Amino acid sequence: MAKILLAEDEEILMMLIRDTLEDEGYEIDEANDGVEAFELLQNNDYDLVILDFMMPRMTGLEVVEKTRKSLNKIDLKMMILSAKNQQDDRDLVMKTGADYFMTKPFSPQQLIETIEDILHD
Known about the structure:
By secondary structure, this protein is α/β, with parallel strands linked by helices. The protein has 5 helices and 5 strands. The protein has a 5-stranded parallel β-sheet, sandwiched between helices. Helix 2 runs parallel beside helix 3. The radius of gyration is 13 Å and the shape is globular.
């Protein structure tokens, strides 16, 4: 099954997403902030990276930009999760180099369906 990096600074949301994805058979690595996520990206290969938009030390968008530029992981699929739902926020996320944007809150089923679509593109 696919290996996913999940970076989320809200502990309860991290746990809910992790448990949901593990129940579906995905292998999950966790990061509590953007710096930790970037360090994991430097040393591991993933099928998908799920990043919270706003995290301490480095935002999800900064992780996307840095990963695309300095790690040259052009084909890595990256999704941003955000409570922000304005079109400007969505445009910024896509312009930064993320592949997908999901607005919080979302249902576990919606998350699973989106991830399955992403991984089977």
